[in-house]
Amino acid sequence: MPARRIAGTVAGHVLAAIGVAIAVATLAFIAVQAAPGDVAFRIAEARYGERISLQTVDRARQATGLDQPIIVQYGRWVGSAMTGQLGRSMVSGRQVATEVWRSFQTTLSIAVVGVSLALVASLAIGFAAGMRRDGLVDRIFLVVSAVLSSVPSFLLGIILITIFAIGLRWLPAAGNNRPGYFILPACTLALALLPDLSRVARNAVVRTMQDFYPTYGRIKGQSWLRIVFAHALRPTLVPVIAYFGPLVAHTIGGLVVIDVLFNLDGLGTRLIDSVLAADIPMAMGAGLLIGISVVVVNGIADIAVQVLDPRLFNAQPRP
Amino acid sequence: MTAPSLDEGAVTRRSRPPLAIVLFGFLPLAAMLLLALLGPLLLTVDPNRQALSAASAPPSAAYRLGADNLGRSIAARVIAGARVSLGIAVAGVIASLVTGLALGFLAAFHAGWIRQVVMRLSDVIIACPGLLFVILISGLLGGGIGPILFGLWMSQWPGFARLTAATTARELATDHVEAARLLGFGRGYIFRAHVLPAITPYLTSLGALTVGANVLTISSVGFLGLGLRPPDAEWGAMIAGTMTFFRTSPHMVLAPAAAILICTLSATLIGEYYSARR
């Protein structure tokens, strides 16, 4: 029975993914078109530099199909995207799919390492603080997390770079061609996500500890470690995983800043650069991939929550 | 369960905030706001004036917070940046608050299609990453104060609208509002006398939290180089411009960083104080 439910959930998420992907790519298209100034002019500027003649602009306009009506341009893109063709960059002429895919790998490695670090650290901190509500650890945690959440992520990154790349020379400071390049960006991301995520974890632990079974475990003579790992971890994970929806939005914003700070060609830089250069196919390609990632993460979180707490299946029928 | 007594509510309403909140919340934020408002009067030096002989000077009597790598007074630039950051942050919250209050109230009073439109629209906007939204808008519209403000307003009014709609709907369902309605009082009166006082703590909390978040967002946009045009001072841009000197002259980075931290932390503390109190 749960397998069928999960299959249904997956199908729902796949449909949602297609919808969101199209919506995001459309927004990227509208964003580029709605910006003040001639798109062809910006393309020509990005291609050939600041000093360009009107003939150059017209040539760029024809070469990129920008002389067609907007509806035709949009329809063409959707049509080819359906068959897996994302087209070529209007600026560099390279395949959008290859370029975006390369950026995606950079972003994915940073995001996976960063979010995993944040998750593990949040659970550890959450248990340390939440097991004794209003205890010393809890109070220190609340103060530190309030301060940490008030520090902009780029400043965290600058501090990490100064210590580990410039001071100790352990890790590369920028670029993504040296081994271990993703460690500092991932740590920056983890630190940026930590205050919110650990607070969710701490509140979840507080709620779990109010249930009777931790007390029951103590009465039976179980150690705190056993209670945490055998009983309390699973119900605590449910709100933490459910928080991945807002978390992923936060992550995307943070990754843009991290891309710029560490000079990486991740999806964030890719999206911003292409929108600024009016490179429509590239912007739509990057938007498409970001939209799909958001939906995939939400879908995985949704299924994980249902697996972790099967009661949620029966409690609320899915709309 | 014992019946909640009326006195208890009255006492919490009138109780003054604890010392910690005053010391680390209201005072610092008030000081920064004052600094921003009085900015031009306090400035004795032009924040953009370069004195290359004083480049990277550490804090001294002439330069209270030192000078940056181009010999500009960091104190003057931090004050000038306060006008930008706090100005946009507060203006963004006021704009979002007014829009959200109006639309949320409409949605609560008209349960039909207006409510559907407002709610679905806010669902979509809330799902978007706010920072990315502001970055893209200010990038597309060419930087400056206007686009950032527009981006903040676009991404934040739904939060206020949803909060207003939810709390207003709850208040409208109470007996005393029902009584007022039966007595023939109009919507305007009910809104002023019953709904607004009831939902104010919620909105204060969200408003303060949003001011803090906005200061962070504005500094991130400035850091990316999409905010004000140089040489105008903005905290995030100041950090971006001097971060390569962090090891040799940390004061250039730490002064604007401290300003960001003070504003965000104090606003967050105020917001959480009100959200815990309601």
UniProtKB/TrEMBL annotation, chain A:
CDD domains for this protein: TM_PBP2
Domain of life: Bacteria
An example Gene Ontology CC term for this record: plasma membrane
Location relative to the cell: Cell membrane
Keywords: Cell membrane, Membrane, Transmembrane, Transmembrane helix, Transport
Transmembrane segments: 12-32, 108-128, 140-168, 180-197, 240-262, 282-308
GO MF term set: dipeptide transmembrane transporter activity
UniProt KW Transport keyword: yes
Membrane topology: Multi-pass membrane protein
Boundaries of every ABC transmembrane type-1 domain copy: 104-301
Protein name (database record): Peptide/nickel transport system permease protein
Organism: Chelatococcus asaccharovorans
From TrEMBL, chain B:
Taxonomic placement: Bacteria, Pseudomonadati, Pseudomonadota, Alphaproteobacteria, Hyphomicrobiales
Superkingdom of the organism of origin: Bacteria
Membrane topology: Multi-pass membrane protein
Keyword Manganese applies: no
KW Transmembrane (keyword) present: yes
InterPro entries tied to this protein: BP-dependent_transpt_permease, MetI-like, MetI-like_sf
Family annotation (Pfam families): BPD_transp_1
Residues that span the membrane, as ranges: 20-43, 86-112, 124-153, 202-228, 253-274
Organism (species): Chelatococcus asaccharovorans
Record keywords: Cell membrane, Membrane, Peptide transport, Protein transport, Transmembrane, Transmembrane helix, Transport
Gene3D superfamilies given in the database record: MetI-like
GO BP annotations, alphabetical order: peptide transport; protein transport; transmembrane transport
Chief localisation class: membrane
Gene Ontology CC: plasma membrane
Subcellular location: Cell membrane
Similarity-based family: Belongs to the binding-protein-dependent transport system permease family.
Residue ranges occupied by any ABC transmembrane type-1 domain in the UniProt entry: 82-271
Protein name (record): Peptide/nickel transport system permease protein
